Amino acid sequence: MPSTPKKRKKNFASFNTTEAFKQLNLKELSLWQVDYNPVAPSSFFQERWARLQCFDLQKYEESKKIVIDAICEEAIQPYKKLKIWKGAALCLKVGCWIVSQLPQRLGH
Fold first, then answer.
1. Would you state the torsion angle of the CA atoms of residues 45, 47, 49, 54, taken in this order, to the nearest 10 degrees?
2. What is the pLDDT of residues 15-48, one digit of tens each?
C-alpha cells in the first residue's frame, strides 16, 4: 500500500510577516517599554571586540554570529544560572527551526 508523503514543515526563514502572524493568530505586535540601566562593557569584551575587527562583521551571516556570541557572552556573565543553547531545535506544529540563541534557566 503506498504511503502518503508527510507534509514537510516550513523553514522559519521562509515565513513572511503576514504568514507568521496568521500562524500565531496575531493581528498586531505590541511594543514593549523596557526599563534598564546600561552596563559598561568589561575590559575582556573590549579586548575581544578589538580582536574581532579583523573580520568583516557586517556582510556575512557567519561573521554576524561571532558578534552575537560576543554580546551574549558579555550579557550573560552576571547570571550564573542562565545558559545559552546554540543550535537547539524549536519545533511547533507549523515548523521546526534551529534556534541561534535560546536562553534556558539552569536548575529549574
1. -160
2. 788 888 888 888 888 888 989 898 899 999 999 9
